[in-house]
Structure formats: C-alpha cells, structure tokens
C-alpha cells in the first residue's frame, strides 16, 4: 500500500498531502489490494486514524501517560506497514450482522423443530448427562475466548485488524449464548435436567481445569496479537475443534441426538473464517521484509507456550470420549486429526510444533 507523502512542513491545508487519488475526483485515499477497491475496503481502511498517515496534528486525545489513542507497542510484533492487512472474509458491520442473524435463525429453527417432535426425550440418558455437564462447561470456554478477543480488539493498530478480531469475538459470544439457550430449552423437556451443572463442572471438575488454565492464560496476555494468535492458531485447532467436531458432532447422532450437531456446526464455519483471517495477518508479519525474522521468533515462542497448555487441556478432556454408551469415534483418532491440523497451520507460517 502506498503511504501518504507530505510536504516537509506538516500542514492540514488542502493540497498539502499526496495520496493515491489526490488528483482524481474519486478521492480514493488508500491503495486497494486489487485493481478496484471493495466495499469492505471503502468502509474499513483508515477509519481508525494514524498520525503517520493522515492525522498531521497528532492524536486529538491521549492517555494521561502521553500515549496516543492507538500505539504500535501494544504488541511485540513489528510491521513495516500495519495497514497492508485485509481480512479474507471481507467482513464489516453490515455483513457481520447479516451472517449472525441467519445463523441465529437456523439455530432457533433447529431447536424449535426438534422440541416440537419430542426429540430431546429420545436422547440416550448418558448423553443427556454429557450435554448437561460438558457442553454446559464448554459454553464458558467460548465465553472466555470471546471476552478475551473483545478486550484484544481495542489495542489493534488498524481498523482492519480490529474488525477481524471483534467479529471473531462476536462469533464466540454468540456460540456461548446459543449453547446456554439450547440447554435451557431442551432442559424443559428432560426431567431432572440441571442447566446450572455446567458452571460447577467448569469450576470444579479436574478434567476441565487444563482448559480453564489455557483460556485464562490467553485472557491474561498483555499482547493483543498473542491473544488472537493463541486463540485461532493454537487453542482452537488443538482443543476447540477436538471437542466440538471430534466429539460432539461425531458422537451425538449415534446417541439419539440430531439437534446438537447443527447447533454446534456454525462454530466450525466461524472458525474457518477466523483462521483464514489470522493466518493471513500472521503471514504478512512473518514475511515482512524488515521484521519477518523477529516476528517468526516471537510467534514460535507463543506456539511453544500455548501448545503446552492446549495439550494439557486436551488430555484433561480425554475421559469424556468414554462416557457415551455409543462410541463411534475414539479420542486417539480425534486427537491425531487435531495434531495434523495444527502442523499444517503452523507450516503455512514457517513455524514448528514442539514435541510433547
């Protein structure tokens, strides 16, 4: 992308800066990734100002310590051009709300139709216990990641990075809400169902404490890019997909449950979008002409730290695979797929998976 060039004496006067369309009636002030700017770029690029580009008078407001509204040192990563990133999913406010609305309509229709047909009453008894305890616990994992990313998006240096992080957060919080409402609704059809059990399991069950530790470590990071990286590159591939796709969606139907898979399936589609955005951003940073080596070393450190926590979390969840009456998939197989998955993801960034 072409950076703004200013005259030697900084000025806000008309004509004092040169930008891509400064000599055109179109007034396109940024360099689009392709020949023509997309709608996403029109409403996203440079919406968040940058004193190095257009805010010649510097930040209008600053924090008490003198820092401006957004600073580059909110992450250990470095970039020669933070504004180069464009999210592959091209998502902005309108498209995000539209997609979320469609997902919610689908989820609610599935639940309503399932309850109308009396489906929850035919769930295997052991499976009902699993939904009550372990799916009930998982909603807290999704909520934790969602709140972590919500906090992280405040510190991104450009609107493009913040948009991708915030939509990621929104998807996580939506899924947590979907699970909460889903369990509450089927609980009305299943005698003795305790929709508060998930919280107790999350806080007290030994098997879930590794997952709590992994998520709380992500939440506790002071580096917003580490939070984004650890969520999508590490935790989701080694724990999130393992539990959602490798267990819930594989095992539910053989235990009489045809409602849970479509409720959870939207999360897998969400993750593919979030992962693509994350890989694209991190790839820009590891291939940066000036700072690529620094970023690659930094990211490998994040991998080493969060993979160890994710492995511990996955191991803690292993006993859940033995609890259903019908066991169409084994933990070892699901785990092998998740390990292969993260190896491919890391390979795209030139990073390696540490040995267990």
From TrEMBL:
Entry coiled-coil feature ranges: none
UniProt GO MF annotations: oxidoreductase activity, acting on paired donors, with incorporation or reduction of molecular oxygen, NAD(P)H as one donor, and incorporation of one atom of oxygen
Record carries keyword Acyltransferase: no
CDD domains: AAMH_B (cd01058)
Oxidoreductase keyword on record: yes
Pfam family, one: Phenol_Hydrox
Key words of the record: Monooxygenase, Oxidoreductase
InterPro entries, A to Z: Ferritin-like_SF, MP_mOase_hydro, Phenol_Hydrox, RNR-like
The protein's name in its UniProt record: Toluene hydroxylase
């Amino acid at each position: 992308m072409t950076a703004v060039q200013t005259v030697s004496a900084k000025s806000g006067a008309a004509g004092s800066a040169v930008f891509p369309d400064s000599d055109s009636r179109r007034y396109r002030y940024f360099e689009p990734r392709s020949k023509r700017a997309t709608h996403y770029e029109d409403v996203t690029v440079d919406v968040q100002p940058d004193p190095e580009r257009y805010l010649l008078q510097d930040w209008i407001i600053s924090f008490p310590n003198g820092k401006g509204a957004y600073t580059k040192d909110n992450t250990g990563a470095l970039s020669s051009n933070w504004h180069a990133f464009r999210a592959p999913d091209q998502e902005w406010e309108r498209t995000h709300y539209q997609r979320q609305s469609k997902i919610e309509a689908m989820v609610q229709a599935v639940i309503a139709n399932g309850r109308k047909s009396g489906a929850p009453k035919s769930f295997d008894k052991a499976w009902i216990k699993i939904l009550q305890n372990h799916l009930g616990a998982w909603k807290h994992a999704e909520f934790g990641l969602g709140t972590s990313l919500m906090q992280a998006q405040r510190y991104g240096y450009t609107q493009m990075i913040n948009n991708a992080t915030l939509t990621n957060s929104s998807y996580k919080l939506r899924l947590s809400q979907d699970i909460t409402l889903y369990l509450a609704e089927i609980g009305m059809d299943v005698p003795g169902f305790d929709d508060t059990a998930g919280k107790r399991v999350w806080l007290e069950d030994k098997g879930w404490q590794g997952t709590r530790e992994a998520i709380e470590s992500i939440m506790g990071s002071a580096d917003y890019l580490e939070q984004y990286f650890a969520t999508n590159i590490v935790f989701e591939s080694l724990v999130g997909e393992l539990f959602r796709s490798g267990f819930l969606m594989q095992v539910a139907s053989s235990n009489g449950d045809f409602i849970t898979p479509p409720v959870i399936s939207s999360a897998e589609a969400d993750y593919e979008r979030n992962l693509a955005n994350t890989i694209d951003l991190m790839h820009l940073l590891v291939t940066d002409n000036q700072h690529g080596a620094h970023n690659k070393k930094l990211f490998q450190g994040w991998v080493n730290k969060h993979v160890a926590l994710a492995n511990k979390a996955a191991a803690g969840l292993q006993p859940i695979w033995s609890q259903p009456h019908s066991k169409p998939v084994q933990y070892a197989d699901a785990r092998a797929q998740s390990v292969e998955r993260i190896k491919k993801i890391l390979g795209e960034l030139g990073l390696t998976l540490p040995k267990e």
